[in-house]
Amino acid sequence: MAEPRVTLTRGDFLRSAFQIVDSAGLSALTMRALGDRMGVDPTAVYRHFPSRERLIDAMLDAVVQQAAESPNSGDNPRDRVMSVAVNIRRAFRSHPNVTGALATATGDFPSGFMITRMMISALRDLGLRDENLVRMYQTFEGYILGSCVFDTGGYPETFVIRQARYRLIGEPEFTEIATSPENVERVTENAYLDTINSLLDRCEHLVRH
């Protein structure tokens, strides 16, 4: 007697897509490769995702959702902004080969709007209003997403490459840091937190003046 046919869900295809990208990179993800991995014709993939671009958007949405659902480290607005910044970075580092897609994504993913509203709410609670609110939101968005692409794409090899670059700079301060990729990563992560704190200081300055 034939075994009952298993109905594959959108989530099943997404999980397999992450497995392909995590192990072989974004270039390895094609509708045919995903269908082959799932043991189905590629047309089955298209029933859930009309194009490769929409599939990648769905993957980005899943990563951002992971960040959106992570707990905040505090209740005050400053802590909430910091939590968003840290959680987004952590989520993309868990799938570093997906990060590069941020640069060309269509932006059509609901979790992105969830994160946006969380950030705007926290900035508003800090006291920002009118153009200052929009300007500082855009500053945070640009820095957080840009640094995710630059720092977490290809992780952990990113810091091996940066270690070599630090050595080539030839300045003693950089050579001292370039003793290991882990040391370069530590400095990079501290720089990220320093920048978020500096932007938060700027927000508070705008509110006071």
Automatic annotation (TrEMBL):
<dbReference type="GO" id="GO:0000976">
    <property type="term" value="F:transcription cis-regulatory region binding"/>
</dbReference>
<keyword id="KW-0804">Transcription</keyword>
<keyword id="KW-0805">Transcription regulation</keyword>
<dbReference type="InterPro" id="IPR050109">
    <property type="entry name" value="HTH-type_TetR-like_transc_reg"/>
</dbReference>
<dbReference type="InterPro" id="IPR001647">
    <property type="entry name" value="HTH_TetR"/>
</dbReference>
<dbReference type="GO" id="GO:0045892">
    <property type="term" value="P:negative regulation of DNA-templated transcription"/>
</dbReference>
<protein>
    <submittedName>
        <fullName>Unannotated protein</fullName>
    </submittedName>
</protein>
<dbReference type="InterPro" id="IPR036271">
    <property type="entry name" value="Tet_transcr_reg_TetR-rel_C_sf"/>
</dbReference>
<dbReference type="InterPro" id="IPR004111">
    <property type="entry name" value="Repressor_TetR_C"/>
</dbReference>
<dbReference type="GO" id="GO:0003700">
    <property type="term" value="F:DNA-binding transcription factor activity"/>
</dbReference>
<dbReference type="Pfam" id="PF02909">
    <property type="entry name" value="TetR_C_1"/>
</dbReference>
<keyword id="KW-0238">DNA-binding</keyword>
<dbReference type="Pfam" id="PF00440">
    <property type="entry name" value="TetR_N"/>
</dbReference>
<dbReference type="InterPro" id="IPR009057">
    <property type="entry name" value="Homeodomain-like_sf"/>
</dbReference>
<feature type="domain" description="HTH tetR-type">
    <location>
        <begin position="7"/>
        <end position="67"/>
    </location>
</feature>
